[in-house]
Design a protein that fits this description.
By secondary structure, the protein is an alpha/beta fold. It is built from 9 helices and 10 strands. A 4-stranded parallel β-sheet has the order 2-10-4-7, with helices on both faces. A two-stranded parallel ribbon has the order 1-3. Strands 5-6 form a two-stranded antiparallel sheet.
Length: 314
């Protein structure tokens, strides 16, 4: 079903009128029947564009499960993200505010736990709230403001100022970092290559462009199993649940486990027109930041060629 904003508002308005009329026609003294509150499963993929789905016209990538959700549910055609970096966009989803209002204007900043947010509101409403996977709102930095309230820089926040999911109303938390590393440690997979430990969010060790961690133990499989376990545990609960399931992929490093590393050929990928943009027509500050990023990441034509980003003749 394809929904425009106008159609959505029309249906939503009709539903509101219907609820109001039912209240007016209810016999005096009769108590409204309390509707059963729905369980909510919110799934996020990280750094995935709209056009990287079959439901939005991509004929190369295979996304059957997402396509089915789009086909059987609501598929938005006119929408915008609040901000393109990870943390600001996530903070906007949780608070309903633009980044200049919630204060997370770039990555790795703490989110003010005093702001009304989805986790706390649902918890106050009686929901069993859970968050599994990538969070990216705990810090470790905070903004520095001048006397006018304008941010002028950032500094390291104290440990007590960090904002993990537990501080924002989430009761059950499974992280893609600490908890996943414990899982690998129990399986003896913490060091899949000699001398190479899996650390933090960098959960894949690159070897020939694929993860050496088996498919059934990659971070996405771990989170999916934890989510299924949580949902099954709620079967007989009187409380409704909200589960945020936040997969770290397809965010780089793009190193899927075998056999998924051979599903697609680089030759079939259609690159965007600005893929090789050298920023020469951008403001000087943007060009400097781009060069700084390339140097910081050790990127140069030789390394990019090895990564199959540029043609062989470059």
């Amino acid at each position: 079903m394809n929904w425009t904003r106008r159609k959505f508002l029309k249906v939503a308005t009709g539903a509101t009128v219907g609820v109001s009329l039912s209240a007016l026609t209810r016999p005096k003294g009769a108590q409204p029947k309390r509707p059963k509150r729905p369980n909510i499963l919110f799934i996020i993929t990280d750094q995935q564009r709209k056009d990287a789905m079959g439901a939005y016209g991509n004929t190369i990538l295979r996304t059957p499960n997402m396509d089915r959700i789009a086909r059987e549910g609501i598929r938005f055609e006119n929408f915008f993200i609040a901000s393109f970096p990870c943390s600001p966009s996530r903070a906007s989803f949780l608070t309903g505010l633009h980044h200049h209002s919630h204060g997370v204007i770039s990555n790795n900043l703490v989110l003010n736990p005093k702001l009304p947010n989805l986790g706390q509101l649902l918890s106050d409403a009686g929901y069993h709230t859970a968050w599994m996977g990538k969070w990216h709102l705990a810090g470790p930095d905070k903004l520095i403001y001048d006397e006018r309230g304008i941010p002028i820089g950032r500094k390291r926040a104290s440990a007590s100022e960090f904002t993990p999911p537990e501080k924002l109303g989430f009761e059950t938390v499974v992280s893609a970092g600490r908890d996943y590393l414990r899982y690998l440690r129990r399986l003896g997979l913490e060091e899949p290559l000699p001398g190479k430990k899996v650390r933090g969010g960098h959960h894949t060790v690159i070897q020939d462009g694929h993860s050496v961690i088996p498919e059934e133990h990659c971070v996405e499989a771990f989170l999916a199993k934890e989510a299924v376990k949580f949902i099954h545990a709620q079967r007989n609960s009187e409380r409704p649940f909200f589960l945020g399931l936040s997969f770290p992929g397809p965010h780089r490093p793009m190193t899927p486990p075998k056999p998924w590393d051979k599903i697609y050929s680089p030759d079939d990928m259609v690159l965007p027109a600005n893929h090789r943009d050298d920023m020469s027509n951008k403001p000087a500050v943007t060009q400097r930041r781009f060069r700084w990023f390339m140097l910081r990441k050790g990127l140069n034509p030789a390394s990019l060629k090895r990564a199959l980003v540029f043609e062989n003749e470059m």
